[in-house]
Amino acid sequence: MKLSRFALAAAIAICLDGSARAQNLVPPGVPADADAEYLVDSAQPSPSDLPLPMAAGPQQYYAPHCVCGPWRLFPQGDGCWNIYGWVDAGVTANSEFNESRYNGVTTFNDRHEGMLNQFYVVTERTIDPCRCGWDWGGRVDLLYGTDYIFTQAVGLELDPDGTPLSGWNGSPFYGLAMPQAYVEVGYDRLSTKLGHFYTPIGYEGVMAPNNFFYSHSYTHQYGEPFTHSGALANYRLSERANLVGGVVNGWNALDRVTDPLAYLGGVQWNNDDGLSVALIAISGMEPTLTNSLAAGGFTPRHMYSLVVNYQLNDCWTYVFQHDLGHQDDGAAISPQGLPSVNPHAEWYGINHYLFRTINSCWSAGFRFEWFRDDDGVRVTGIRPDLGHPLFAVPGQFAGDFYEMTAGLNWKPNHNLIVRPEVRYDWFDGLELNGIGPFSDGNRVDQFLAAVDVILLW
Questions:
Q1: DSSP states of 159-224 as a string?
Q2: Are 453 and 118 in contact (CB under 8 A)?
Q3: Which 3 state secondary structure label does DSSP give 96?
Q4: What's the number of CA atoms in the CB half-sphere (13 Å) around residue 200?
Q5: Is 12 helix (H, G, I), strand (E, B) or coil?
Q6: Tell me, what DSSP letter sits at residue 45?
Q7: d(CA 67, CA 88)
Q8: What's the half-sphere exposure (Cβ side, CA atoms, 13 Å) at 420?
Q9: Is 152 helix (H, G, I), strand (E, B) or coil?
Q10: Taking every pair of C-alpha atoms in the chain, what is the biggest distance, in angstroms?
Q11: Any idea what the Cα angle at residue 194 is, between residues 189 and 198, rounded to 5°?
């Protein structure tokens, strides 16, 4: 898609000319005109990573007595190009030790060992959210670490046919990705991004400080896109509602062998009582597991995500998420390895999150998820070469995935976040050739204990 290439080149050229600052968004329940410096954490979610009404999650604290933010390595200024970022590293233990150290289909901490997940650098100039008239900005994100493999885009970190670039990111463990590179133009209530950017779909995001948990849900990893390339507009209907819409090059792609367009759009709304709702959908042509990009095997794929965030009181916050996806001829191979009688694939899930703010340093969270992959076409594992070689077989795990995660967030100061958690996963469905999704194919459940540390700089 020539437009995507031009937009990406323009974004990089502009953003290499300076540096960026964190975008501060006001948490639910906090006055919309609150000074951004009152937020203890300034690594707020970008509107392109999480829906605006969901942006300030329960891990953000409102502290009226605090007028300082995190210390930054580079000076930050309003209306300037600024640079900031973080380092995220953690360790995971698995109750079922296996030789590959592979945690199966669980991500992002998919190995039971120490991992440098993200060394993340942001170069950014944000547009004024209270503008009257024209304003412009841009952003480039660079991610180095084990999480790079989850944010690769076809035609950027990968060849247009989806294969790895020769001599680039040759390691299955550590590599470099550029999940965002865009320019942004705003006029009054309307702003438009042009380039490569995070999806507004869903609740969880790639950037570590914006998530309560170290591990991620199946819904986020397998049910939703991570990035898009193209144009995305945001129109502020009022102080409480936004319309989002644009034309993009599908899921996780900049330039493919063929470049069918997809349509992305939805609505984001919140009120004065701590309730916010985001409904975002995408519709376009995407490749199937049984038709490679090189072969041009594209069929219609549609999905939507509904996220409801409700701040029950000063201490408790509940989040509900429901995703539903469908692809024509997406399951050409049945779970038994034979041609499918009903080749249409679908996946859907329900996530429940419950968070409690204990004090200005501690918060607790719980997540329960049910994700159904009817035809085994979505949950296949991201590093299958490190686990059982049959993990990448289409139709391998057709059935229901469940997970329960409980964790804490400790924030002793503005620059440090420590996230311990425990997690239990289990699978109920077909095990093709007797291969399970965990412990190198030997089990249908697993127990993980993990902790990571995020240092903002």
A1: -TTSSBPTTSS--SS-EEEEEEEEEEEEETTEEEEEEEEE---SS--SSGGG-SSSS--HHHHHSS
A2: no
A3: coil
A4: 29
A5: helix
A6: P
A7: 25
A8: 4
A9: coil
A10: 64
A11: 90
Residue type, 23: Q
410: Cβ–Cβ under 8 A, 6 or more apart, which residues? 361, 362, 417, 418, 419, 420
Interstrand relation of 134-145 and 175-187 (parallel, antiparallel or unpaired): antiparallel
Buried b (16+ CB within 10 A) or exposed e, 226-246: bbbbbbbbbebeeeebbbbbb
Peptide bond into 355 cis (omega under 30): no
What domains can you pick out in the chain, each with its CATH number?
2-456 (2.40.160.10)
Smallest CA-to-CA distance from 220 within 235, 194, 199, 234 is with 199
Please give the chain's pLDDT, 457 residues, in tens.
Answer: 444 444 444 444 444 443 333 333 333 333 333 333 323 333 333 334 543 333 333 433 333 334 468 899 998 888 889 999 999 999 999 998 888 888 989 999 999 999 999 999 999 999 988 888 999 999 999 999 999 999 999 999 999 888 888 778 888 889 999 999 999 999 999 999 999 999 999 999 999 999 999 999 999 999 999 999 999 999 999 989 999 999 999 999 999 988 899 999 999 999 989 999 999 999 999 988 665 555 557 899 999 999 999 999 999 999 999 999 999 888 766 655 555 656 788 999 999 999 999 999 999 999 999 999 988 889 887 775 665 665 656 667 889 999 999 999 999 999 999 999 999 999 999 877 778 899 888 899 999 999 999 999 9
Q: What pLDDT does 297 receive?
A: 76
Backbone φ, ψ for residue 389 (5° rounding): -65, -15
Neighbours of 405 (CB within 10 A): 23
Count CB-CB contacts under 10 A for residue 17.
11
SS3 67: coil
Q: How is residue 100 written in tokens?
A: 């590959």
Q: What is the CA radius of gyration of the chain?
A: 21
Q: What b/e sequence results for 254-266 when a residue is b if at least 16 CB atoms lie within 10 Å of its CB, and e otherwise?
A: bbbbebeebebbb
- Distance between CA atoms of 243 and 269, rounded to whole angstroms? 9
